[in-house]
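Weekly structure sync, notes
Attendees: PL (lead), two postdocs, one rotation student
Agenda item 3: pending single-chain targets
PL asked that the sequence for the first pending target be pasted directly into the notes so everyone works from the same version. It is reproduced below exactly as submitted, 378 residues in total.
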Amino acid sequence: MWEHRYLKRIDLRTLPIILGIMWMSLLLVSSVTGTDWETGDFNFFSPIVKKQIRWFMIGWGVYFFCAGIDFRYLKKWCWPLYGLIIFFLIGLFFTSPIQNVQRWYQIPFLGMEFQPSEYAKLVLVLTLSCFLEGKRERELQSVKTAIQALLMVLIPFVLILKQPDLGSALVLYPIALVMFYFGGIKKSVITLMTFFALSAIIFVSLTFLDILSHEKLKPYATLILKEYQYERLNPNTYHQKAAQAAIAIGGMHGVGWHKSEFTGHEWLPAPYTDSVFAVFGEEFGVIGIFLMLLFFLLLIYFSIQIVAAASDPFGRLLSAGMTVYLAMHVVVNMGMMCGFLPITGVPLLLVSYGGSSVLSTMMALGILQSVYTRRFRF
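Predicted structure, written out during the meeting:
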């Protein structure tokens, strides 16, 4: 099941990239949380930074465990894990809300929170890979298979949407679309899903570019959506404007690490979680943003290479799903902070503070390495 010898075959190019992204995270979290505003004292190792370091250390353990395990062994666990994650998603509705939403389980004796929606994305990738890989070509072209696959996506999608967690729910859509394509699902289904995705992107883009008026569309949109759901598409919220202002203040070179006035004085909501990219933009400017983009682009590029090198259909599906999972978090989070997409609570991978996000990301990266190290048939 787990073999340490495969760790020697890990793609070493990815390790400095992951470490670099983690270092960026610690710099930003420390900048926001390390200052005592009453005394003016600064401590790099604030309590939040210490927690993030702890999550990174646990994450590396998860990474090497997943890299050493044979990814094909995961087939045995796909359906039990799918059932378990659905159980946890349903169970959230019987817990007390945290920050007015039902997204987390409190684990008091460990002093931590558990967010099932982060792991639901990975479990869906695994389960869809098992399901599609086990179908013959004729079965894949049937409407029955398409409906079954769509239901597998729809169940966690609805449960996550009801928390409410629009961002995590929407990430499931491109994951499913890409996996359906690689899995050979009926082309008409893929075409229809692509049409809906493009229509939604165009509508949201036109709204956020002020080509379509948010207020004028409201009477028509609320015939389909509830008012609070439609308000998530409002491009003029305080959070949207604050994120854009922080990035604009940074200019080309940034104001410097730990010198931000805007985010430093807590004018930006969620500065070390979902809005961490805006903090980075203010402190390191456009040049810093290009560096961060380069790190993420390289990580995703190397992941795409794993998809191409996979030795079997299951490995190809699994690595494709994991790659889309990584890419969508980066695209959506940066799009939110730049004002191109509604703010929906999607973390920036390995940069935003949060245990569930760190562990699920390191799990995905580890599984990708498991596929990579076993890309040759012996």
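Discussion points:
- Residues 4-185+237-373 form one domain.
- The chain is about 65% helix and 0% strand.
Action: rotation student to compare against the earlier draft before next sync.
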